[in-house]
Structure prediction request, 498 residues.
Amino acid sequence: MQDGSGGTPVAPTRERNVLVLDLSKSMLAPLPEPGTEKGEHQKVEVARTAVFRILQDAANSGSLFGLVTFTETVRAPVPLGEIHKENLPYIENLISLLQPSGRSAIWDALAVGADLLRMGTRGVQGNLVLVTDGWDNASQRFDVRTPAQPTVQSGRVDLVPYLLPAGSNLTLRVIGIGSGDERDKGVDGVRVGQLLTQMTARAAELGLPAAYSFQEVTTGTQLFAQMVHAFIDVGYEDDRPIEELHPEELARHAANAARALKEPQQHATVSRLHTASQAAATAYTEAPDLEVDVIAGSGGATTPVYLKERYGPLGEVVEAYLGGQPDRALELLQRAAPVLPPVTRLYWEARIQFARRAIVEAARALLQAWGEVEKLPPSSQTRILRRLALLQARMQNDKETETLVRFIDETEHRLASSGPEVRARLLDLFSRLMELRGTYQLTQLANAGDLQDAAVQHEAAVEVVFGQLQDARLDLASAGPVAEGALDFLEICLAEMR
Prediction:
């Protein structure tokens, strides 16, 4: 959302998700499962099963969900709203009655999906997921420009600005079934790519966050996993959102984190993380196969659902680990080792061994994981290193480092949809806070004659960062409670660093 001055969009307080599902006749075709004992299932059967599971999660999480279906006609059988558990049987029965037929009005369907997410002057707010196996061949109202056709057809509306008016905060994900090199042989990958390119360009023009992706699937398992992945996230372990902390709790956490900056001998991991963050010249983007972020919910919470479908062999490992079966998890991890990247395998080996109280083995695996991360490009290291640092802090019972790294990590994670400028501003402040470790140490290590000069230099450095923080408070006044909580945390840390 935006304030009236056209500032940075702020996401709504509850997740808003709309699925746009292809029900054209081609969805009756089967999807293969090569190399498995599973029989073939129709595309629509797999999609329905995924929708049922997404609905169950929406009923548990309280997020808003809507469903748009299309043939040559577009319908909204499930309007955007809260999914109540007592209504699930009715909704699931309704979805089971939907039968594929006819052609594909893809562009018109995306427009209706955007209409469900539209919030007046705030534009289109939420997560829009398109699942299709075809080419648009039936839209009547909307069109997408191409290099060969730089203007839309006469009488049609250009879809891109309709999906992305000023002030929007839209995530668009396209899951395409099959290969679309030939008409009627799968999704029209070329046109989808053109759509997302235009969406990205428009977002840049308007200064909006751009989160648009396209994933092709060719098996039933892939289709199910990608659909579930688009709506269901697995949270971080012991995750306590910044905005839910009481001010006294926030102050206590910030004071603990500041000690990690002031006592390098006891918190060496922080120095390693700061060096890595300086080396990373670009924003972190995790490779899809480096799954070190599959973490449980908070203590006592139930095991996240659909881990096996979403993460394959690793999902089985994590499911056993979260189910309190570390020996079983270790056995599964050893079986899955050939298909897992080294960082993923070693990270989870360290976690599982630590849960088994095999401290030496856990420390050895974690040390090897640190070494494997150093082989990755610098731009891919930062967040993975933070995941390793959290585990190391937990293994060493280093609450100060754990608190500091978690707040940095959570700020980046929870502001992912708030726009790159908000996230970059806060992460830059965290980086500058960590730089104060150097000037603070000079006040502790300097000779007696230089001590006063070192203290003056450190205080001046603190004041510079404090001024930058106050500027950020003014600029990010409408960025939401997560940003506000992060700024409060930073300010308390600065006070502790004086």
Confidence is low (pLDDT under 50) at residues 1-11, 233-240, 274-303. The radius of gyration is 25 Å. Strands lie at 16-22, 30-31, 41-42, 64-70, 74-82, 125-132, 142-143, 157-158, 169-177, 211-217. Residues 16-231 form a domain with the Rossmann fold fold (CATH 3.40.50.410).
